[in-house]
Design goal:
The protein has 749 residues and is an alpha+beta fold. The chain has helices at residues 3-10, 22-38, 47-68, 108-158, 231-243, 267-275, 286-332, 337-346, 348-351, 354-370, 375-382, 391-417, 426-432, 434-459, 464-468, 478-498, 513-516, 518-530, 539-553, 562-572, 575-590, 604-632, 637-646, 666-679, 683-686, 697-729, and strands spanning 82-88, 94-100, 164-165, 169-176, 186-191, 194-197, 203-210, 213-220, 248-249, 258-261, 279-280, 741-743. The strands form four sheets. Strands 3, 4, 5, 6 and 9 form a five-stranded antiparallel sheet that branches. A three-stranded antiparallel sheet has the order 11-10-12, with helices on one face. It is a multi-pass membrane protein.
Length: 749
Amino acid sequence: MKFGKELASQMVQEWQAAYVDYNQLKKLLKDLLRFRQNHALPSSPGPAARQRSLTRRLTMYRAFSGLTGLRGSPRKNEDEVILVSAVEQEGSDYRYQTMFLRSSEEGGEYELVFFRKLDEEFNKVVKFYKGKVEEVKKEAEQLSKQMDALIALRIRVDKPYVGVGHGFGPAEVRVAAPAGNSAPATVIASVNGVKQESSPFSSIVLFSNMKGGLHMDVIQEVEMSTEGNSVGEQASAEKNRKDSRSFRPASIDVLDHVKINVDPDTPVSTLRNVIKSSKSDPSFSKEELTKAEEKLRKAFVEFYQQLRLLKSYCFLNMLAFSKIMKKYDKITSRSASKSYLEMVDKSYLGTSDEVNKLIERLEATFIKHFANGNRRKGMKSLRPGHKKERHRTTFFLGLFTGCSIALVAAIIVSIHARNLLNHEGRGQYMDNIFPLYSLFGFIVLHMIMYGSNTYLWRRFRVNYPFIFGFKPGTELGFREVFLLASGLSVLALAAVLSNLDMEMDPRTQSFEALTELVPLGLVTVVLLITFCPFNIIYRSSRFFLLRCAWHCICAPLYKVTLSDFFLADQLTSQVQAFRSLQFYVCYYGWGDFKKRSNRCLESNVYEILYIVVAIIPFWSRALQCLRRLFEEKDTMQGLNCLKLGSSAKECQNPWLRDKLLISNKAVYFVAIVVNILLRLVWMQLVLDFNEAPFLHRRAMVAVVACLEILRRGIWNFFRLENEHFNNVGKYRAFKSVPLPFHYEDEKIM
């Protein structure tokens, strides 16, 4: 695989604009190569011309460096091609620039453009990387404070009498924390006024009331500071430690300064936040400790993934600069890569080691406190395995697809051979049996559309597992979705084929009970598989679907996530499926299924529920919108929509957004027209165009429902495209994990 494609496959998609534009740099080198080939330029100029050009460029460089104060000094070498330097800017930031010393040579303007673009890309990468490192350092400090509170809560829950020494008077534990966190904290234990100081961050000494005297518990701690270990930094840290007069309460007393964050993610917590505050005092219960540990565990895992991707970002960009400079040397037969890569190695991108230190310390902390010292278990939690493509999935997909095609052919042949379209029992079949089986058609079609979406999202590098919030390694790919759809279609088509009989038994004047119960049995099987608690048939995905469905039912009592309102949108397109379920209850509960007769439409209750069932998905979606409006307190969304609509003429793509996944803009305009037309199809139900000359009324309703599902599938692709570009624009590649504790000195957001 070429490096350009490898880079594109491994980069964090939400950060793609922050990576080096390798393809653009490669294009500039191709232009340079084409120019040199067309003009038959030699590999290098003559020594006299090279010496004159170098002398002139060095003179200009000295004059320029005397004015701007550049770091470094040029090397006086006639083979020198570039001079790389760093211009100091505000603060401690540097802007790197390259002076090309051969611009007067033929074709030099191409190389000058290349190095200007190279410097632009390098400065962009360094700025982004440094900003992200500063962010993770602040987050590491916040997680350290969260760990202090968690350890204190563990001690308080497990040993409620910590703080009273048996026969020795009160025991006190404090952590000496220098201001600014410039040095490690020191643990100080005091018993009856006698202080004992432990080594920095080596352990926290706790005393508890035990039989036989004083019992000492030692809990190892790991420092999460990112400070270096140079002599100057150590001296500064020691000075700050000695000069500091402020101390942070120790692991037990810290609970006096924290509150428990109550996230509005359940009905109870939502109602509590409406009535009371979103912060509560610690209750020191086992349940509270378990919730805090789970939240902090998730925060550590998410932070670890962030550090790993940041490390990968640094490595891939450094490798890209190395590759592109070697290509330049090969094309021009120069030796410029050595000088430039030396600058790359000495820059912040090459010398910063904060991320590696944080990774090591986070691993040690997680293994110690969340894996009971078991490194294999801890690393398995921190580094979840990637999902492996299984050949059996492809095999069974092909098998079920072939069986489905064969069953469709068998149904068509059976209908024509028995002339069922002109049979006198056709109307009875369409009124009673067809609605039962159409339910499975709606579900299979929706699954096929979702499978197609997952294929396109992966094809265009949309990170849909992150957008939906799937647990890493558990998301379903297009093969798995198509496998489920084809498997369900085989069951449904086989049931249809077994239930095509339209003639009653002349002796009993009824249909065979066993075949008439096939649709009910099939629904029962699907429901049992959906709610099956055993780890079979993608349990993680089934439970994720059920959880989102429950959130939709209980809206607005649950916090609304994208997966929740995305599912609610899907349900609004499955109104006929819900009505089919309603018909199942009426048909098998109050109808005479042995004679294929029902009086559902004659019931006023059924007609009322027929309308209510259609309203529920839209009502749930509306309540979700109200919940988001209440939480985000954004009443300007309507005005923003108008503003965005009025500014569409100023975009690079009129009537479309600036960034598009599909390069062919006609696809978007066709999708707009199709979406409008399909949205108007529902009018046939209002205007009573329910029956065509060649279609039964029930069939017409099913066709309209299928068209709505197709429209929803098209909309799904562009909806996630919009969310993807929102993440890209904000460089949002990680989830925001709620933390369990809130310090009183922190600002309430």
